[in-house]
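Recap for those who missed Tuesday's class. We walked through two folding examples back to back. For each one, the amino acid string is listed first and its predicted C-alpha coordinates come directly after. Nothing is annotated here on purpose, so try labeling regions yourself before you check the end of the notes.
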Amino acid sequence: MNRIELVEKIAAAHNVSKAEAARILETVTGSIVAAVKKGDPVQLIGFGTFKQVARAARTSFNPQAGAKIKIAAQKVPKFVPGAAFKAAIDPKAAKRKADKAAAKPVAKKAVAPKAAAKKAKK
Protein backbone atom coordinates (compact mmCIF):
# COMPACT_ATOMS: atom_id res chain seq x y z
CA MET A 1 0.00 0.00 0.00
CA ASN A 2 1.37 3.42 -0.88
CA ARG A 3 0.44 6.91 0.32
CA ILE A 4 -2.25 7.47 -2.35
CA GLU A 5 -3.95 4.15 -1.56
CA LEU A 6 -3.89 4.98 2.14
CA VAL A 7 -5.45 8.40 1.50
CA GLU A 8 -8.20 6.74 -0.57
CA LYS A 9 -8.83 4.21 2.22
CA ILE A 10 -9.10 6.99 4.86
CA ALA A 11 -11.41 9.03 2.62
CA ALA A 12 -13.72 6.07 1.98
CA ALA A 13 -13.79 4.89 5.60
CA HIS A 14 -14.58 8.30 7.11
CA ASN A 15 -16.64 9.87 4.31
CA VAL A 16 -14.26 12.80 3.74
CA SER A 17 -12.68 14.13 0.57
CA LYS A 18 -9.34 12.79 -0.60
CA ALA A 19 -7.80 16.24 -0.03
CA GLU A 20 -9.02 16.26 3.58
CA ALA A 21 -7.78 12.68 4.10
CA ALA A 22 -4.37 13.69 2.68
CA ARG A 23 -4.18 16.63 5.12
CA ILE A 24 -5.10 14.34 8.03
CA LEU A 25 -2.44 11.82 7.02
CA GLU A 26 0.13 14.62 6.64
CA THR A 27 -0.73 15.91 10.12
CA VAL A 28 -0.31 12.45 11.66
CA THR A 29 2.98 11.66 9.94
CA GLY A 30 4.31 15.19 10.48
CA SER A 31 3.51 15.01 14.20
CA ILE A 32 5.26 11.65 14.54
CA VAL A 33 8.35 12.91 12.69
CA ALA A 34 8.50 16.12 14.77
CA ALA A 35 8.21 14.25 18.08
CA VAL A 36 10.82 11.62 17.16
CA LYS A 37 13.14 14.35 15.87
CA LYS A 38 12.98 16.01 19.31
CA GLY A 39 13.85 12.67 20.89
CA ASP A 40 10.38 11.91 22.24
CA PRO A 41 9.00 8.42 21.59
CA VAL A 42 5.55 8.15 20.00
CA GLN A 43 3.64 5.17 21.37
CA LEU A 44 0.45 3.99 19.71
CA ILE A 45 -0.91 1.28 22.01
CA GLY A 46 -1.44 -1.96 20.11
CA PHE A 47 0.31 -0.65 16.98
CA GLY A 48 3.83 0.17 18.04
CA THR A 49 6.38 2.76 19.12
CA PHE A 50 8.37 5.18 17.01
CA LYS A 51 11.57 6.35 18.66
CA GLN A 52 15.02 7.76 17.99
CA VAL A 53 18.10 5.63 18.66
CA ALA A 54 21.78 6.53 18.59
CA ARG A 55 23.92 4.38 16.33
CA ALA A 56 27.58 4.27 17.40
CA ALA A 57 30.45 5.13 15.09
CA ARG A 58 31.95 2.08 13.42
CA THR A 59 34.49 0.95 10.88
CA SER A 60 33.28 -0.76 7.72
CA PHE A 61 34.80 -2.15 4.55
CA ASN A 62 34.31 -0.85 1.00
CA PRO A 63 34.67 -3.95 -1.20
CA GLN A 64 34.93 -1.95 -4.43
CA ALA A 65 37.89 0.15 -3.26
CA GLY A 66 39.20 -2.53 -0.91
CA ALA A 67 39.62 -0.04 1.89
CA LYS A 68 38.30 0.41 5.41
CA ILE A 69 36.00 3.38 5.90
CA LYS A 70 34.82 5.11 9.04
CA ILE A 71 31.08 5.55 9.49
CA ALA A 72 30.19 8.40 11.83
CA ALA A 73 27.79 8.07 14.75
CA GLN A 74 24.25 9.00 13.85
CA LYS A 75 20.70 9.20 15.15
CA VAL A 76 18.20 7.01 13.32
CA PRO A 77 14.46 6.42 13.66
CA LYS A 78 13.27 3.02 14.87
CA PHE A 79 9.85 1.39 14.90
CA VAL A 80 9.06 -1.34 17.42
CA PRO A 81 5.79 -3.12 16.61
CA GLY A 82 3.27 -3.61 19.41
CA ALA A 83 1.89 -6.93 20.61
CA ALA A 84 -1.44 -6.55 18.82
CA PHE A 85 0.32 -5.72 15.55
CA LYS A 86 2.60 -8.75 15.89
CA ALA A 87 -0.39 -10.96 16.72
CA ALA A 88 -2.27 -9.72 13.65
CA ILE A 89 0.68 -10.58 11.42
CA ASP A 90 1.51 -13.98 12.96
CA PRO A 91 -1.32 -15.34 15.15
CA LYS A 92 0.45 -18.67 15.66
CA ALA A 93 3.51 -16.98 17.19
CA ALA A 94 1.27 -14.89 19.44
CA LYS A 95 -0.55 -18.03 20.60
CA ARG A 96 2.77 -19.79 21.32
CA LYS A 97 3.95 -16.80 23.35
CA ALA A 98 0.67 -16.66 25.31
CA ASP A 99 0.78 -20.42 25.98
CA LYS A 100 4.38 -20.19 27.14
CA ALA A 101 3.54 -17.33 29.51
CA ALA A 102 0.54 -19.23 30.90
CA ALA A 103 2.54 -22.43 31.41
CA LYS A 104 5.39 -20.68 33.20
CA PRO A 105 5.15 -21.55 36.92
CA VAL A 106 5.16 -18.74 39.43
CA ALA A 107 8.49 -18.85 41.25
CA LYS A 108 8.45 -18.61 45.02
CA LYS A 109 10.70 -16.00 46.53
CA ALA A 110 13.86 -17.53 47.91
CA VAL A 111 14.74 -16.76 51.50
CA ALA A 112 18.00 -14.87 51.79
CA PRO A 113 20.86 -16.93 53.35
CA LYS A 114 21.22 -14.56 56.33
CA ALA A 115 17.50 -14.68 57.05
CA ALA A 116 17.54 -18.48 56.84
CA ALA A 117 20.46 -18.63 59.29
CA LYS A 118 18.63 -16.36 61.77
CA LYS A 119 15.53 -18.57 61.59
CA ALA A 120 17.64 -21.68 62.20
CA LYS A 121 19.21 -20.16 65.37
CA LYS A 122 15.83 -19.37 66.91
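Example two. Treat it independently of the first, because the proteins are unrelated.
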Amino acid sequence: MMEQRNYITRQGYDRLKSELLDLMDCERPKVVEVVHWAASNGDRSENGDYLYGKKRLREIDRRIRFLMKRLEIAEIVDPTVHRGKDTIFFGAYVTYLRESGEEVSIRVLGTDEADSAKNEVTWVSPVARSLLRRSVGDEVWLSTPSGTERVEVLGVHYG
Protein backbone atom coordinates (compact mmCIF):
# COMPACT_ATOMS: atom_id res chain seq x y z
CA MET A 1 0.00 0.00 0.00
CA MET A 2 1.36 3.41 -0.99
CA GLU A 3 1.78 5.90 1.83
CA GLN A 4 -0.67 8.78 1.57
CA ARG A 5 0.89 12.21 1.26
CA ASN A 6 1.10 14.09 4.52
CA TYR A 7 0.60 17.70 3.47
CA ILE A 8 1.03 20.16 6.31
CA THR A 9 1.59 23.89 6.76
CA ARG A 10 4.81 25.19 8.29
CA GLN A 11 2.86 26.17 11.44
CA GLY A 12 1.39 22.66 11.73
CA TYR A 13 4.81 21.07 11.22
CA ASP A 14 6.34 23.32 13.86
CA ARG A 15 3.57 22.44 16.36
CA LEU A 16 4.14 18.69 15.86
CA LYS A 17 7.91 19.12 16.14
CA SER A 18 7.52 21.20 19.30
CA GLU A 19 5.28 18.53 20.84
CA LEU A 20 7.84 15.84 19.94
CA LEU A 21 10.74 17.77 21.46
CA ASP A 22 8.72 18.54 24.61
CA LEU A 23 7.88 14.85 25.04
CA MET A 24 11.50 13.76 24.51
CA ASP A 25 13.26 16.52 26.44
CA CYS A 26 10.84 17.34 29.26
CA GLU A 27 7.94 15.00 29.89
CA ARG A 28 9.64 11.62 29.29
CA PRO A 29 12.66 12.35 31.55
CA LYS A 30 10.33 13.47 34.38
CA VAL A 31 8.29 10.25 34.13
CA VAL A 32 11.46 8.13 33.94
CA GLU A 33 12.66 9.80 37.15
CA VAL A 34 9.36 9.03 38.92
CA VAL A 35 9.42 5.40 37.72
CA HIS A 36 13.04 5.01 38.86
CA TRP A 37 12.19 6.48 42.28
CA ALA A 38 9.08 4.27 42.59
CA ALA A 39 11.02 1.16 41.57
CA SER A 40 13.59 1.83 44.29
CA ASN A 41 10.80 1.64 46.90
CA GLY A 42 10.54 -2.13 46.65
CA ASP A 43 7.40 -4.12 45.78
CA ARG A 44 6.31 -2.97 42.33
CA SER A 45 3.10 -5.03 42.09
CA GLU A 46 1.11 -2.64 44.28
CA ASN A 47 3.14 0.52 43.72
CA GLY A 48 0.77 3.02 42.06
CA ASP A 49 3.52 5.48 41.11
CA TYR A 50 5.46 2.70 39.42
CA LEU A 51 2.47 1.17 37.61
CA TYR A 52 1.07 4.51 36.47
CA GLY A 53 4.54 5.72 35.47
CA LYS A 54 5.21 2.65 33.32
CA LYS A 55 1.81 3.06 31.65
CA ARG A 56 2.48 6.77 31.02
CA LEU A 57 5.94 5.94 29.59
CA ARG A 58 4.33 3.54 27.09
CA GLU A 59 1.86 6.27 26.07
CA ILE A 60 4.65 8.82 25.66
CA ASP A 61 6.81 6.41 23.65
CA ARG A 62 3.86 5.53 21.41
CA ARG A 63 3.18 9.24 20.75
CA ILE A 64 6.88 9.90 20.09
CA ARG A 65 7.00 7.09 17.50
CA PHE A 66 3.80 8.40 15.87
CA LEU A 67 5.09 11.99 15.69
CA MET A 68 8.46 10.88 14.30
CA LYS A 69 6.77 8.91 11.52
CA ARG A 70 4.39 11.75 10.65
CA LEU A 71 7.18 14.35 10.58
CA GLU A 72 9.35 12.05 8.48
CA ILE A 73 6.75 11.86 5.68
CA ALA A 74 5.48 15.45 6.03
CA GLU A 75 5.40 17.61 2.93
CA ILE A 76 5.37 21.24 4.00
CA VAL A 77 3.11 23.35 1.79
CA ASP A 78 3.11 27.14 1.72
CA PRO A 79 -0.49 28.21 1.06
CA THR A 80 0.53 31.85 0.58
CA VAL A 81 1.83 31.02 -2.92
CA HIS A 82 -1.86 31.08 -3.91
CA ARG A 83 -2.50 34.49 -2.31
CA GLY A 84 -4.67 36.63 -4.55
CA LYS A 85 -6.18 33.67 -6.38
CA ASP A 86 -9.84 32.73 -6.03
CA THR A 87 -9.28 29.00 -6.55
CA ILE A 88 -9.35 26.60 -3.60
CA PHE A 89 -6.11 24.77 -2.82
CA PHE A 90 -4.52 23.36 0.35
CA GLY A 91 -4.45 25.98 3.12
CA ALA A 92 -7.34 28.05 1.76
CA TYR A 93 -9.90 29.79 3.91
CA VAL A 94 -13.21 29.13 2.15
CA THR A 95 -16.67 30.60 2.62
CA TYR A 96 -19.61 28.91 0.96
CA LEU A 97 -23.36 29.35 0.96
CA ARG A 98 -25.57 26.39 1.82
CA GLU A 99 -29.01 25.84 0.28
CA SER A 100 -30.50 26.86 3.65
CA GLY A 101 -28.95 30.33 3.26
CA GLU A 102 -26.34 29.66 5.96
CA GLU A 103 -22.81 30.87 5.25
CA VAL A 104 -20.10 28.43 6.31
CA SER A 105 -16.40 29.28 6.65
CA ILE A 106 -13.75 26.57 6.80
CA ARG A 107 -10.02 26.15 6.27
CA VAL A 108 -8.52 23.23 4.36
CA LEU A 109 -5.50 21.79 6.24
CA GLY A 110 -3.49 18.60 6.76
CA THR A 111 -4.72 15.56 8.66
CA ASP A 112 -2.30 16.21 11.54
CA GLU A 113 -3.28 19.83 12.06
CA ALA A 114 -6.98 20.30 11.24
CA ASP A 115 -9.21 21.04 14.24
CA SER A 116 -12.94 20.71 13.63
CA ALA A 117 -13.64 22.95 16.63
CA LYS A 118 -11.95 25.76 14.66
CA ASN A 119 -13.86 24.94 11.44
CA GLU A 120 -10.79 23.33 9.92
CA VAL A 121 -11.21 20.30 7.66
CA THR A 122 -8.61 17.89 6.34
CA TRP A 123 -7.78 18.08 2.66
CA VAL A 124 -8.92 14.44 2.30
CA SER A 125 -12.37 15.03 3.84
CA PRO A 126 -15.42 14.77 1.56
CA VAL A 127 -16.12 18.51 1.93
CA ALA A 128 -12.56 19.52 1.01
CA ARG A 129 -12.37 17.00 -1.86
CA SER A 130 -15.53 18.54 -3.34
CA LEU A 131 -14.22 22.10 -2.95
CA LEU A 132 -10.57 21.71 -4.03
CA ARG A 133 -9.78 23.36 -7.38
CA ARG A 134 -13.14 25.18 -7.39
CA SER A 135 -13.36 28.95 -7.62
CA VAL A 136 -15.50 31.79 -6.30
CA GLY A 137 -18.92 31.60 -7.93
CA ASP A 138 -18.78 27.84 -8.59
CA GLU A 139 -21.66 25.68 -7.47
CA VAL A 140 -20.53 22.42 -5.91
CA TRP A 141 -22.30 19.27 -4.74
CA LEU A 142 -21.24 18.33 -1.21
CA SER A 143 -21.86 14.98 0.43
CA THR A 144 -22.99 15.57 3.99
CA PRO A 145 -24.27 13.19 6.67
CA SER A 146 -27.79 14.42 5.89
CA GLY A 147 -27.41 13.86 2.14
CA THR A 148 -26.08 15.62 -0.92
CA GLU A 149 -26.34 19.41 -0.95
CA ARG A 150 -25.52 22.09 -3.51
CA VAL A 151 -23.43 24.99 -2.22
CA GLU A 152 -21.97 28.10 -3.82
CA VAL A 153 -18.38 29.20 -3.21
CA LEU A 154 -18.54 32.81 -1.95
CA GLY A 155 -14.95 33.54 -1.01
CA VAL A 156 -11.42 32.20 -0.96
CA HIS A 157 -8.36 33.70 0.70
CA TYR A 158 -5.01 32.51 1.99
CA GLY A 159 -4.54 34.50 5.19
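Answers for example two:
Strands lie at 6-8, 74-76, 93-97, 103-109, 120-122, 139-144, 147-157.
Residues 10-39 form the longest helix (30 residues).
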